[in-house]
Amino acid sequence: MGIFSRFTDIVNSNISALLDKAEDPEKMIRLIIQEMEDTLVEVRTNSAKAIADKKELSRKVDSIESQVNEWQNKATLALAKQREDLARAALIEKQKLQDVLKGLRTEQTLVEETIEKLTGEITKLESKITETRAKQQALAIRNQAASNRRDVQKHLHTARTSEAMAKFEQYSRKIDELEAEADLYSASSEGKSLEQEFAELQAQDEIEKELAKLKAEMENKQ
């Protein structure tokens, strides 16, 4: 069974209230639009039938009016020929056709009223469908915005975590540097190591060699 059962239910429906109560608003609004479109198709079909009936009635009325005029002419001709009996018979047939014509014109009036009513219903339904589609679009935008906001929050959360880890690494490096400096100062206070003493002797020997070489070059120039 559909969400709506009658045209009036659709036109008077509060779509927002229905969506607020729905567990799945997106699914609900799709069903509502489908129900409206189905109803619109039905109303348009009835309207098309009514228009076809109007055309058919119009053809029948034209035909009956033509026959009424023919019997009127026959009655006139019969009287002109002194055939009152034939004139009376012609007028009787004319009367019968006029009664039929009266009934057809009543039907025409009813059909025109039906068409007018159906046209109004179509306009209202189309307006309601437009309104509901706008709500569907707004719902989709809200859903997308909520999804984007969630993704941003997740990203921010991850970024903050990464930032915290980076700061932790930075602090750890500073501690390492401080510990290294402390080790250097500690080594200096304990005196020179054996390797340091030999390195200094080697450096002094190199300097003496360079100095002797420089003196020899200067003597040669003299």
From TrEMBL:
Q: What is this protein called?
A: Phage shock protein A (PspA) family protein
* Signal sequence, start to end: none
Q: Which family does it belong to?
A: Belongs to the PspA/Vipp/IM30 family.
One Pfam entry name: PspA_IM30
Q: Does the keyword Nucleus apply?
A: no
**Which ranges form a coiled coil?**
47-135, 161-188
Q: Which UniProt keywords apply?
A: Coiled coil
| GO CC annotations, alphabetized | cytosol
Q: Which GO terms describe its biological process?
A: phage shock
Q: Which organism is it from?
A: Vibrio xiamenensis
